[in-house]
Specification:
This protein is of the alpha/beta class and about 325 residues long. The chain contains 13 helices and ten strands.
């Protein structure tokens, strides 16, 4: 496995108290414990380590987790990284990206196009552009989470009827679903998205790509994408059903619940799949659920706000 030396195999954890509260079993893949605090390192590492030896510069655009993933992967390979990030990116993600040695260029996510800026910079530096989700190298790397899941579920002899996974551009859920359905074709895979940004759920229902309400604000910065990717949506149309939509208050209560009962820290975008489980947004007759806790890069002020609101129970 190309990326195995550069990532960590994250654990599956559960809480007897959460299981009791839900009256079913909830397994959580704690990808918030990945290096860089997010699954994004997987896809970024696969893209960077798959480059030919002549490439000495990469460019990426990201709200933070892909940024840190590309920055770390570039640092481990010894290539330069320039990352385009929104001005309102959480400080912890900006600082994390710079700490890996990347140059950061900021933009206004509500009025400027990160794709256009990324294209300009990649041409200017003659650099390889690594997109956050609509890139087959990235989707394949994210799919390693599904391969890990298969191994771990065999070890604990548990097969969930439903897997809940956050969904922004759709790279993680696309890679994961290909891996899972290759072994367990009957498992239902449900996307969980923030309120106003349920573009994948609505796109699946309409059978075509639908845009999100991008003027609306959401605390789930990691997954507020304008619409599904072309590559990812083509994959997800074949693999996904249903979908959960999570508002900000539910997300904050979930962060507090996860901290109280599982002792892990999740960021808003990393909490929505667990929020779907806690609020009953999954297929009926599901006795065992698995949710991906996809990231843990949260600023102190927002984490405090979540703790102040408090857990579900």
């Amino acid at each position: 496995n190309l990326i195995q030396p550069y990532i960590v195999r994250t654990p599956i954890i559960e809480s007897p108290r959460i299981n009791e509260f839900l009256d079913r079993r909830l397994l959580i893949k704690a990808e918030c414990l990945q290096y860089t605090g997010s699954f994004k390192l997987r896809g970024a590492s696969n893209a960077v380590w798959g480059l030919d030896h002549k490439t000495d510069h990469v460019v990426a655009f990201s709200s933070g987790n892909h940024a840190q993933g590309v920055a770390r992967a570039a640092a481990t390979r010894g290539v330069k990284a320039t990352i385009v990030m929104p001005e309102d990116t959480p400080k912890t993600k900006l600082e994390g990206t710079k700490a890996y040695g990347a140059d950061v260029v900021t933009y206004d996510r509500y009025s400027q196009s990160r794709e256009a800026i990324g294209d300009q910079l990649s041409k200017k530096f003659n650099a390889n552009l690594i997109k956050p989700y609509d890139d087959i190298r990235v989707i394949t790397g994210q799919g390693t989470i599904g391969l890990e899941l298969m191994e771990q579920l065999s070890e604990i002899d548990a097969i969930p009827e439903t897997i809940l996974c956050c969904c922004g551009g759709g790279g993680l859920i696309a890679g994961l679903s290909i891996a899972v359905h290759s072994k367990f074709p009957s498992v239902k895979i449900w996307p969980a998205e923030p309120k106003f940004y349920d573009d994948t759920k609505r796109s699946l229902a309409k059978g075509r790509i639908v845009r999100a309400e991008t003027k609306k604000l959401s605390i789930c910065d990691a997954i507020v994408t304008p619409q599904p990717g072309n590559l990812t949506f083509a994959i997800n149309q074949r693999h996904l059903t249903g979908g959960a939509v999570i508002d900000d208050e539910t997300t904050l209560k979930t962060i507090a619940t996860v901290f109280k009962h599982l002792k892990i820290v999740v960021e808003p975008g990393g909490a929505v799949a667990i929020a779907a489980a806690l609020t009953g947004q999954y297929p009926p007759n599901t006795k065992t659920l698995l949710a991906i806790a996809s990231g843990g890069n949260i600023d102190r002020e927002l984490f405090k706000k979540a703790l102040d609101i408090g857990p579900f129970f």
